[in-house]
Specification:
Number of strands: 25
Oligomer: single chain
Number of helices: 1
Order of helices and strands: HEEEEEEEEEEEEEEEEEEEEEEEEE
Structural class: mainly beta
């Protein structure tokens, strides 16, 4: 009986322990990720794009025309032989033409040594494929204060006052451009801007428009009014002067040039002669590479001269038509330009001699 009771107690104890057992965890427990709460910023409004201003329109620029110098020539500050020389350009140099004077006798070119990188050269010494269409610089103004340009048509004196009794202060040459600043009472004399001040020139030897807008200036340089010149002003007195002596001869020509197939092929030379006073003749020498050249001479003034090409038997007179002249290739040729005298009358002629080699 006791044995049975002990067995019963053991069974009951086993059952109790089995029902109350606690499981033992041997692994590392998982830890859940911490929850982080962040503050949400209020939405920032997106700024509207500001209106972009339109870019300013580019200033119109002058399209330069290209030209080539036909001979050595001076570059000047202004379009006048009385203007200061900035420098010298050799023959066969390419230049950029950006302007012209009112008469179309001078080109404004790009030149580093000049004011604003520009200078002036005579148009006759620049060869271009077509006539450059460039702005006119120094055009005729619309009021006395705006300036007024004029072009000299033949050599004439510049004087200190409006008559031949005043001192001679300089000389202007054909195609020089001058700035007019006034006139005398009858309009026969014009006051101009000149070296170190002003000067006076005879109105008969310049080309200009609207002279009535110029102020009237007294002999002492005072502005005394404006007005239209008299309907019948007294005829102005010619102020021609003899050509300056240059003392050239056949053995020492005024100009000598060598024509080459790949080099210089054109000579344009400007000079003047007079008779019976002054320099009566000029000598020009050239060496051709072919047996023919084209020669022409244009004249201003009395047009009283003769042009002889020695060795060819050819002679020319003032004309714009070129003449074919037979020459000897590789041999120095001489040209004589001589004034034809008229007794008692000064015969002054300004000429432009052009010699072109056959290409």
């Amino acid at each position: 009986m006791l044995h049975k009771s002990i067995l019963t107690f053991a069974l009951l104890t086993s059952v109790f322990l089995a029902g109350c057992s606690v499981p033992v965890q041997t692994g590392i427990p998982e830890t859940s990720a911490p929850v982080i709460i962040t503050a949400t910023l209020p939405p920032v409004p997106t700024p509207r794009p500001s209106q972009t201003p339109f870019a300013p329109l580019p200033s119109p620029t002058v399209v330069p025309f290209w030209g080539t110098t036909s001979t050595q020539l001076n570059v000047r500050v202004d379009p006048s032989t009385a203007s200061d020389v900035l420098g010298i350009i050799a023959a066969n140099v390419v230049v950029q033409i950006v302007g012209q004077d009112p008469g179309g006798n001078w080109w404004q070119i790009m030149y580093n040594a000049g004011i604003e990188g520009k200078g002036w050269v005579t148009a006759q010494y620049i060869e271009t494929a077509t006539k450059p269409e460039v702005p006119v610089i120094g055009d005729v103004g619309t009021s006395p204060d705006s300036g007024h340009s004029a072009v000299v048509i033949q050599q004439l004196n510049v004087r200190s006052g409006p008559s031949t009794s005043f001192d001679l202060v300089g000389i202007l040459n054909p195609n020089d451009v001058v700035e007019l600043t006034g006139k005398n009472r009858d309009g026969a004399w014009l006051q101009i801007e000149f070296t170190n001040g002003v000067g006076w020139i005879n109105a008969m030897f310049v080309k200009a428009d609207a002279l009535d807008i110029l102020p009237i200036v007294s002999d002492l340089g005072e502005v005394v009014g404006t007005g239209t010149p008299m309907a019948n002003p007294p005829p102005p007195t010619s102020t021609l002067v003899p050509a300056s002596m240059d003392f050239d001869t056949a053995d020492a020509p005024l100009k000598t040039i060598l024509f080459e197939w790949t080099g210089t092929q054109t000579l344009i030379f400007s000079g003047d002669v007079s008779a019976p006073e002054g320099d009566t003749e000029d000598w020009i020498a050239f060496t051709p590479y072919d047996n023919f050249v084209f020669v022409s001479v244009q004249c201003a003034g009395s047009s009283s001269l003769r042009v002889e090409v020695f060795g060819s038997g050819s002679s020319l007179i003032c004309s714009e038509a070129a003449q074919v002249v037979s020459v000897q290739a590789g041999v120095l040729q001489l040209i004589l330009i001589k004034a034809i005298p008229t007794p008692g009358v000064l015969q002054y002629t300004n000429y432009i001699l052009t010699i072109k080699a056959r290409r």
